Amino acid sequence: QVQLVESGGGLVQAGGSLRLSCAASGRTFSAYGLGWFRQAPGKEREFVAAISQSAGATYYSDSVKGRFTISRDDAHNTVYKTYLQMNNVKPEDTAVYYCAAAAAFVPGYSREEAYRYWGQGTQVTVSS
Question: Residue 84's pLDDT is what?
Answer without folding.
Answer: 98
